[in-house]
TrEMBL record:
It comes from the Bacteria. CDD domains: HP_PGM_like. Residues 202-221 are annotated as: Disordered. SMART domains: PGAM. Keywords: Hydrolase. The keyword Plastid does not apply. InterPro entries: His_Pase_superF_clade-1, His_PPase_superfam, PG/BPGM_mutase_AS, PGM_Phosphatase. This is Histidine phosphatase family protein. Its EC number is 3.1.3.-. One of its GO terms (molecular function) is hydrolase activity.
Length: 221
């Protein structure tokens, strides 16, 4: 299966750099709406057979123009929502305590899945719920599936599950709003990242992920 993971369009909390992960969450800014409208053209070459979005409003609003353009229903699933910030909810992502969010999330990708977000879920729960939706999509028989999800969730899941994406790459390469990660594979055979925010990712065994590094600490949501 070809799996296209798309971060949602810009929200007011993105502008304010806040850890905003609770359901239903905010809508899109004017820029976010324009980003959503541009998504059908950005993915014009993809033969998308199924389209998913999380339970947060921003992903469903981002998916709507693509759904309309392709004549697809949006399948809403809680499992691909953002990694819960727990007690860190609405803190500035670049604050001393707010930075604990991404440190915890990337520790999950590194294998420490028993670690718990303060007041929130642990890595096994977060990755497990995402795995379940991906498995559902794979079992549907669709050849290409798009999922509109969230920045931290996409980066951490891809780093944990794609054999050719290492933690250092995921840490330094954030996803801008409506940024796309494309993978290929299956839950049984594993996943290989093909591209990350437009940059080609090297095949497994060829020196790890390649592409243009992107600066920034990668605050999610």
């Amino acid at each position: 299966m070809r799996l296209i993971l798309v971060r949602h369009g810009q929200t007011p909390s993105n502008v304010d750099f806040r850890l905003d992960t609770e359901v239903p969450g905010p809508g899109l800014t004017e820029l976010g709406e324009r980003q959503a409208r541009a998504l059908p053209d950005a993915l014009a070459d993809e033969d998308i057979e199924a389209l998913y979005a999380s339970t947060l409003v921003r992903t469903q609003l981002t998916a709507a123009p693509l759904a309309a353009a392709r004549g697809l229903d949006v399948v809403v699933r809680d499992g691909i929502r953002e990694l819960s910030a727990g007690d860190l909810e609405m803190l500035p992502g670049d604050s001393e305590r707010g930075l604990l969010y991404m440190r915890t999330a990337f520790a999950w990708a590194a294998g420490d899945t028993a670690l718990r977000m303060p007041g929130g879920e642990d890595g096994a729960e977060a990755l497990g719920r995402y795995d379940a939706v991906v498995a559902e999509a794979a079992a549907s028989g669709a050849g290409t599936v798009a999922m509109v999800s969230h920045g931290a969730a996409i980066r951490v899941w891809a780093a944990a599950r794609a054999g050719n994406v290492d933690l250092a790459f995921a840490e330094r390469n954030r996803l801008d709003n409506t940024g796309v990660v494309i993978l290929e594979g299956s839950p049984g055979d594993g996943w290989k990242a093909l591209s990350w925010a437009g940059a080609t990712v090297s095949p497994a065994g060829e020196g790890g992920p390649a592409g243009s590094p992107v600066t920034g600490d990668g605050t999610p949501a």
